Amino acid sequence: MVLHSAYFMNFSLLMVICFLLVMTATVCDLKHRKIPNMVVLTGAAVGLLLGALAGPGGILTAVFGLLVGLAVLIPGYLLGFTGAGDAKLMAAVGTFLGPLGAFQAALASILAGSAIAIGYIVFAVLFRQTASPMARYGLMAKTLVTTGRPIYIAPEKGEVMGRKFPFAVAIAIGTTGWMIWQWPLS
Fold it and tell me: Cα–Cα–Cα angle for 83, 175, 96, nearest 5°?
């Protein structure tokens, strides 16, 4: 069922390169809170090149994988949940995984990111390292119920929801999980 074995030379080699890409991006994101364009562009170029070497079907699959990876995370970027580097990283990952793989890995990454965020909030609130966002959420909900109009109240300085966490970690977890899930099928 794996599309890659039909158009790429070696599925295992692709997954190793993709793993190196997400790990490099994760280290950069953890260290600098930014994913360098050079990392993402190099990863995308390698994925597209390997797709091109496999023939017309390979390049098309790599390009569609890039577009799907980008399309899934662009809404998060536009809403401010992720950074542009995260969306570009998922696009680069898509060149290795193809469109279906990019979609599935992106969804797995979003789930991993959600779990990390919930854990981060719970840890910070339980150990009193930050102000709880619950009062702010309660006021937003109360306003919605009484007026019928949603409002947004920005997090206070130092509140856990005002902090950003490196989403490349979630992309690495989601992508690696997808690769492990697919490995027996290749």
Answer: 95
Digit-coded pLDDT (tens) for 170-181? 999 999 999 999
Q: What type of residue is 174? A: G
Long-range contacts of 114-120 (CB under 8 A, 24+ apart): 116/165, 116/169, 116/170, 117/165, 120/160, 120/163, 120/165
Rounded distance, CA 92 to CA 42, Å? Answer: 9
Exposed (0-12), middle (13-18) or buried (19+): which is 80, by Cβ within 10 Å? exposed
Question: How many Cβ atoms from other residues are within 10 Å of residue 124's Cβ?
Answer: 18
Query: How far is residue 98's CA from residue 179's CA, in Å, rounded to a whole number?
Result: 12
Nearest to 46 by CA among 9, 72, 83: 9
* Token digits of residue 161: 């929801």
- Could you tell me the two tokens for 19? 């793993």
CA distance 116 to 120: 6
Question: Residue 55: its pLDDT value, please?
Answer: 87
pLDDT digits (tens, 9 = 90+) for 88-141: 999 999 999 999 999 999 999 999 999 988 887 787 777 766 666 777 778 888
